[in-house]
Amino acid sequence: MTTLQPVAFVGAGPGDPDLLTVKALRALECADVVIHDRLVSAEILGVVGPQTRLRNAGKEGFGPSVTQADINQMIVDEALTGARVVRLKSGDPTVFGRLDEELEAITEAGLDFTIVPGLTSASAAVAALGQSLTKRGRNTAVRLITGHDMQGYADHDWRALARDGEVAAIYMAKKAARFIQGRLLMHGATPSTPVTIVENASRPEQRIVAATLATLPAVLTEADITGPALLMYGLAPRDAAANTLPQVQEMI
């Protein structure tokens, strides 16, 4: 009788292999198969054991994707063979990782699971700015929000977000930038509110592009952001925070 192993849902972090947790590294080294997202870096995949099979379950917003149903089935099929399966997700599996849908699929199949948290990209991005996500006297809360969901551009409490001093890490927002800008301005946000784009956070090709809410779409177009990026709303790079933001400021 085949002994079924729990499926390990593992956070790969933002891309720098040095930011993997020890538990994540152990899971990758012992896995028989790793089913990974498109955004998991090659450096992270390079630490898996030599016996491990890699399966790409890439999804891209508004682009070609493996369907969620196919990903669910892939995980279940591999786990039912008795393989040690790691479902490897960029960042933290509990943050915009469609974790619940995959957990439901494996529990319906009678499989157990473990979750190994990872460093979410917002933490790496704000560290690159030399800032903090929360600061006494500025913001007592921070929002982690998405630029789009299954229905298209995602709606949020724009009025609350438009208040002075609010901070948000906006995931999957490149294509939604003009929509986000319009909603915030419509609800009273100050046009000069800093918005910093962090591309490839923590990776060697990391890039920081400073903008304001007023200039955001134009700056994104001019900077030609092609890698995974977060919009850090309400935050400027530390060395630019005390000055008037230029239209485009890049730091590598």
UniProtKB/TrEMBL annotation:
Belongs to the precorrin methyltransferase family. It comes from the Bacteria. Residues 7-216 form the Tetrapyrrole methylase domain. The keyword Methyltransferase applies. One of its GO terms (biological process) is siroheme biosynthetic process. InterPro entries: 4pyrrol_Mease, 4pyrrol_Methylase_sf, 4pyrrole_Mease_sub1, 4pyrrole_Mease_sub2, CobA/CysG_C, Siro_Cobalamin_biosynth, Uropor_MeTrfase_CS. It comes from Marivita cryptomonadis. CDD domains: SUMT (cd11642). GO terms for molecular function: uroporphyrin-III C-methyltransferase activity. This is uroporphyrinogen-III C-methyltransferase. Its EC number is 2.1.1.107. Keywords: Methyltransferase, Porphyrin biosynthesis, S-adenosyl-L-methionine, Transferase. The keyword Transferase applies. Pathway: Porphyrin-containing compound metabolism; siroheme biosynthesis; precorrin-2 from uroporphyrinogen III: step 1/1. It is an enzyme of class 2 (transferase).
